[in-house]
Amino acid sequence: xxxxxxxxxxxxxxxxxxxxxxxxxxxxxxxxxxxxxxxxxxxxxxxxxxxxxxxxxxxxxxxxxxxxxxxxxxxxxxxxxxxxxxxxxxxxxxxxxxxxxxxxxxxxxxxxxxxxxxxxxxxxxxxxxxxxxxxxxxxxxxxxxxxxxxxxxxxxxxxxxxxxxxxxxxxxxxxxxxxxxxxxxxxxxxxxxxxxxxxxxxxxxxxxxxxxxxxxxxxxxxxxxxxxx
Length: 229
Hints:
The chain has helices spanning 6-18, 23-35, 72-75, 83-94, 132-137, 139-148, 160-172, 205-208, 215-228, and strands at 53-54, 60-64, 115-119, 154-158, 189-192, 195-200. The protein is an alpha/beta fold. It has a single domain, classed as Uracil-DNA glycosylase-like domain (Uracil-DNA Glycosylase, subunit E, 3-Layer(aba) Sandwich).
């Protein structure tokens, strides 16, 4: 693939949106899109697998868990339209990596500088808990992003599932992942080939509302990422 070629990412996005490898997830997302949440009853939900988003020439790849049922599954863009996205994009804006601190819709004008954002799973899973089989069927999408993100040097893993997905990706690409595999922790750092993996607590409300992850803590991780990238 070309160095950050837009066409490569467009092809990947098309493949993701059309993906039907997990019929149970397609059905679940479509049902959420039909029933909706009362606050969004007048909106048209996306209800399909969600592609990645950001700068094709990104030096940092942020890997999350999965679209939120009433966030990205509604808006069609990663971390858009929910509290997790509010927390993440505010931090990226503080770091000079986003042109605005909010993300409400696919056409809200948000652009990222040097950052690409995707997830280990591209469909919203029930209870936000993907199965190992679902994650495995989604691996092709991160594999293709690996090929396209030729400038990326940092994978910022939001949570343990993303950390494990990144390690599995590196192993599939022939990198020597240590045994036993390094465990996820906030602030974990691991060099593998051209990438450095960084661990960060997920930006979900269960972490940000309880103070387990604070804005300052995320700022520190993003600063460390910038030092590496």
